[in-house]
Amino acid sequence: MTQTVRSLEARYYTDPAVWAAEQEGLFARAWTYAGHEAQARNPGDYFTFSVAGESLFAIRGRDGVLRAFYNVCQHRAHRLVAGQGTTRVIVCPYHAWTYELTGGLRAGPNLSAVPGLDKSKICLTEVRTELFHGFLFVNLDDDAAPLDDWYPGVREELADYVPRIDDLESLEEIEIPEQCNWKLSIENYSECYHCALNHPTFSTGVIKPETYDIQPRPGHVLRHTTESSGLDQMTYPIDTNMPHATEYRSWFLWPLFSFQVYPGNLLNTYHWEPVDAGHVIVRRGWYTGDGHDPQVIRKLARQDRETTVEEDIHLVESVQSGLSSRGYRPGPLVLDPECGVNSEHSIQTLQQWMREAVDR
Predict the structure, then answer these.
(1) Mean pLDDT score of the chain
(2) Does residue 2 register a pLDDT over 70?
(3) pLDDT digits (tens, 9 = 90+) for 96-124
(4) Are residues 310 and 209 in the same domain?
């Protein structure tokens, strides 16, 4: 390279106007993880979630289809449901307007008094959905390209590393509040330049950091690859008879989700939920099935929370504080032509996506 590439200016992480632009643009047009289909297995099962400041819910129809709707009554705009549960029909708590599980208006008190009312014309506003190995993604933009166009090849690669991924069940989810901009948390996740110094357990008992590399893939994907630690150093047992058992892979799906496969073919996920310009909630999901011992996964999840996750919280919150300093000048990214663990080429790609999301 003939020119130094510098990190993003502080305003991208601190300016409320940047946050507003992301809400209106990026988050409203990107594929966002909503939940796992196991949360709504049976007709009438539902769960709520939010995207781009909008309250939404997913509900299983009697036809077996999992649909998503804006969580707003078409009468006087009251919220329809909260949390997670099951129902025969969707009833608005305000005036008892009632909707079918497919979103169509079924009934309401004294609707016969409304001249010319055609109930078939009134329906909850549906949101575009796609299932990805049981993981439900939604997009508020009806014209967005399909999931497989955004993340080409990931569906097949995941199935190769987790052969029975469609049969997995959620074992536990850990909620991690971080006092930083969502992009800082994702940048920290998207490089291992800091791993050896800051994550001793992960770097010695899970992966072999000298083999770590992160590469942009077609579409909006960053793929992490590395080898596992030696079997005598692993902090948990793995079955080496499984294909890819001694490898670690992660697929970060821009902008807010990542699938990880830890050594031993153990699937876990990251889901970032931006709150405002200076706060984000990170949800770590762990999944079981396919013959894995749930206690081994629970132990690994606890280890991860007490070491790598806790260490990262301190890192990203310190950076957020530093971005407000008058003394900060965006430094150069370390871009090694050989890539590898001590290169920030993945951050270069990530920050380009971040610029494009705001500077349209």
Answers:
(1) 95
(2) no
(3) 999 999 999 999 999 999 999 999 999 99
(4) yes
Q: Domain check: are 226 and 327 in the same one?
A: yes
- 98 and 219 co-located in one domain: no
Question: Are 208 and 339 part of one and the same domain?
Answer: yes
Task: Report residue 76: phi and psi, to 5°.
Answer: -130, 25
Structure tokens, 261: 């496969």
> Domain total for the chain?
2
Q: Is the peptide bond before 255 cis (omega within 30 degrees of 0)?
A: yes
Residue 1, pLDDT above cutoff 80: no
- Give the model confidence (pLDDT) of 269-298 as tens digits: 999 999 999 999 999 999 998 678 999 999
Res 82: pLDDT? 98
Please indicate, yes or no, whether residues 216 and 295 belong to a single structural domain of this protein: yes
Please name which of 265, 56, 39, 267 lies closest in space to residue 131, comparing C-alpha atoms.
Answer: 39
CATH number of the domain encompassing residue 192: 3.90.380.10
Q: Which residue has the tokens 């699938």?
A: 259
The number of residues making up the chain comes to: 360
**Containing structural domain, residue 195:** 166-358
User: How far, in Å, CA of 217 to CA of 258, rounded?
Assistant: 14
Whether residues 352 and 228 fall in one domain? yes
Question: Is 90 exceeded by the pLDDT of residue 192?
Answer: yes
- CA neighbor of 267 nearest in space, from 36, 34, 67: 36
Q: Kindly list the distances between the CA atom of residue 254 and the CA atoms of 150, 157, 201, 360, in Å, as whole numbers in the listed order.
A: 9, 17, 27, 17
What is the residue-wise DSSP string for 18-30? HHHHIIIIIHHHS
Closest by CA position to 154, among listed 208, 58, 224 = 224
Rounded (to 5) percent helix, strand, coil in the chain: 30, 30, 40
Dist CA 170 CA 172 (whole Å): 6
